[in-house]
Amino acid sequence: MTSETPKESTDTPLVTRQDHDGYVTLILSNPARRNALSSAMMSALHDAFDEIASSPDIRCVILAADGPVFCAGHDLKEMGCISDCEQHARLFAQCSQLMMRIVTLPQPVIARVRGMATAAGCQLVASCDLAVAAATAKFATPGVNIGLFCSTPMVALSRNIARKHAMRMLLTGDPVPAQMAFSMGLVSDVVDDADLEPATDALAAGIAARSGMTVRLGKQAFYKQLEMPLSDAYDYASGVMTTNMQKHDAREGIGAFVEKRHPEWRHE
């Protein structure tokens, strides 16, 4: 083995972006490599999220992929060409930072899944706030089959589904069909393949039509309270609601409800 990693084509961007009214779609655009999370792909995706984070006009994000595979996880060719322990550590740390960026992003992120999402690709889906899957989509954490347990995907997976479901996926590597993934809580919606894009767009547009301030505040609070003891979570959430009540959009929304009219959001 050498410390050199295979080069990816720079002719086209690894992540492409489509802008809509109030939301954007980020597309993993390396189908020839099954949209694998190479270091370059993760950097491109992280940079795209950083740009979106500072854009108040963007209130929701769809994460999609070109080709028949959503994401095959880490680029095994790249990993196999690395022999240095520190390089492997940096690669896995980069992946963890990407997943955390999705969680800390102010805007909700919706995975739009067609085809297979395996290993770190399954982790990517689990890290998103919502996930809409085509009926033929499948999910797997098959690292055990190649002697590399899906330990980092396990973190996101075990925070989305029940322990025994997570352990079964991790210990067997068997693919889980979309409807089962829905029953387990890994995805929020399953739709016919032909309806995948319009259904995901409708969900994103609906979220984008809400107060951006309220959604940002709510997403941050959701993840913070999850790790707290019950009493602390209620204290924290009460403080969040108190802060929320002082905002323009809360006053506007309550007034609009009482007056039976549509609210006019300022997203502040």
From TrEMBL:
One of its GO terms (molecular function) is hydro-lyase activity. The keyword DNA-binding does not apply. It comes from Thalassospira profundimaris. This is Enoyl-CoA hydratase domain-containing protein 3, mitochondrial. It holds the Pfam family ECH_1. PANTHER family: ENOYL-COA HYDRATASE DOMAIN-CONTAINING PROTEIN 3, MITOCHONDRIAL, PTHR43602. Keywords: Fatty acid metabolism, Lipid metabolism, Transit peptide. GO terms for biological process: fatty acid metabolic process. Belongs to the enoyl-CoA hydratase/isomerase family.
